[in-house]
Amino acid sequence: MLELETVVLTQGDFSLTGDFSVPDGARVAILGPSGAGKSTLIGAIAGFVPLSSGMIRWDGARIDTRPPSLRPMSILFQDHNLLPHLSVFDNVALGLNPSLRLTRADRNAVMQAIEETGLHGLENRKPAQLSGGQISRAGLARILLRARPLILLDEPFSALGPALKSTMLDLVATIAERQGATVLMITHDPEDARRLCPQTIVVADGRAEAPADTAALLQSPPPALAAYLG
Question: Which of 81, 86, 187, 225 is 20 to 30 Å from the Cα of 113, by its Cα?
């Protein structure tokens, strides 16, 4: 279980508070106006944004004092974290070993992740030789390989068309269900939240609210969310 206990995040004049928990295996969207602090919230959980006060726990143990590399999570940003000079195979393999010193078992595991995400035959290509959907699949292959219990998504599919984005969201659901992983996904599209996440955290007016039922929330949104959604 992920727990944010009276967390306060302060950057200049900006401040965001949150006090909630997310059960193991839950898939939760994060919705709110631009600049409300959605990426700041994800960054704090990942270890890139320091807490002003409070604590973050995973399965009862504090993780806010750990560096990002020692937290139980994988994160996928809009740019998919791919290094342009490396092949698909090597970009995915970074999830196992940053030095790319791989055993035979490691190489087999990398190829299995590549195949399971539909990239077989593309493992030697560089990111510039891939389509947007293929780049997304490469990012997800690395998450699949890392098999961390917490998956953080910061609008990684926002540049994709509706059909391809739906395919990527379904792939995330498949990976999460197979691994029993918890998913937190920032999105600006309520239909993404409906498709992947039964629950949603609203970030607005300086506060990250506790997860609520996505369908009910979108049917009767609070004022800040209603203004954002139009």
Answer: 187
Tokens 């293929």 belong to which residue?
Answer: 134
Strands 207-208 and 14-22, by their bridges, are parallel
DSSP assignment of 103-149, as one string? -HHHHHHHHHHHHHTT-TT-TT--GGGS-HHHHHHHHHHHHHHH--S
For the record, the structure tokens of 146 come out as 């890392």
Q: How many CB atoms lie within 10 A of CB 169?
A: 23
Residue 88: in which H helix or E strand, if any? helix 88-93
- Mean pLDDT, rounded, for 111-115: 94
Q: What is the 3-state secondary structure (H, E, C) of 54-104?
A: EEEEECCEECCCCCHHHCCEEEECCCCCCCCCCCHHHHHHCCCCCCCCCCH
Given a cut of 90, whether residue 9 has pLDDT beyond it is yes
End-to-end CA distance of the chain: 33
Rounded to two decimals, the pTM is 0.92
Give the pLDDT mean for 214-230.
Answer: 90
Q: Tens digit of pLDDT for each residue in 115-165?
A: 999 999 999 999 999 998 899 999 999 999 999 999 999 998 888 889 989
55 φ/ψ sector (left φ>0, alpha ψ -120 to 50, else beta): beta
Instruction: Give SS3 for 92.
Output: helix
Contacts of 50 (CB under 8 A, 6+ apart): 44
